[in-house]
Sequence to fold (341 residues):
Amino acid sequence: MSWASDVKRNKSAWRLTIASLVLLTIFCAPVQAEKLSDDQIAKLDSYIANTMKLGHIPGLALAVVKNDDVALVKGYGVRRVGSNLKVDGQTIFAIGSNTKSFTSLALAKLVDEGKINWDTKIRDCLSEVSFADPYLASELTLRDLLCHRTGLPVKDLMWYGAPAGRSQLMHRMRYLEAVHGFRSHYEYNNLMYVVAGEALASVSGKSWETFVKDEIFSALAMNRSSTSIRDLSSDTNVAAPHTFENGKNVEIKYRNIDNVAPAGAINSCAQDMAQWLRLQLGEGSYNGKQLISKDSHFCFDTFLGQWHEHPPHKARVQFMLTARGEVEGLRIGGEEFVRQK
Fold:
């Protein structure tokens, strides 16, 4: 099997794995916290069962957040095909490119601290990064990276399954030729989040991994979350990645992507990700404490909104975001499930 076909096969597997952690948000006016009714859970169970069948998903974990209360955390199916190991709210999944929102939030904290702003130029954070276009090299900002508007192409074979570290990847970016004009088009690019993560490390004095653990996981009590598959070696409650081949799910191995960790390496569970949702619905506030300012959260959610307007894949689960990140509804397989009143 060629390297390119291996990449295609494993990317399909990542989509199966990532799609298996579903987060529902219901944003309503503050009322007394309440759990979902038995009837609501039964309807949800039926919908999820049908969706798993259509999507060939071995197992998933789901969390529902309502009025800042975790109304439901539940697992469905199995962690690996052919086993009886059930998925639950503590089961670890790779969250893939949802990691990018953690990188954006980490930078938002530095914005609040006055160390950077969204229009800080990358050359002022990372002098070693260069690009073929001198104007891009001179004017590229953090906002440009996070909004995927650099004009540089998707070159995932530079990093996927490759031995190159982040410093090597950044060095090689100078050879990339733009496919669009700077700030003229949306062009999804994992490599730019590598740059964003390294800018974070340069400004904060902490590695991206340490900053995310200290400033986000710890603050949100996301005690089961990690930034590398290396952290999963001793964990017994982990969902295996699968690919769908010849009409059936086939388990495959996790791929180490530490070289682009700020773009997609976080692993988490439904219980932990419910805390992340609470932070978003609270406009940067968690358990009465403002983790990031509302202004920074507004910008942060605007970046997410732009991402969701141009999804890189036709995901089965799609959140409908307003400019402020409030969830208007959720569509699964094109069908509306929740609508904000």
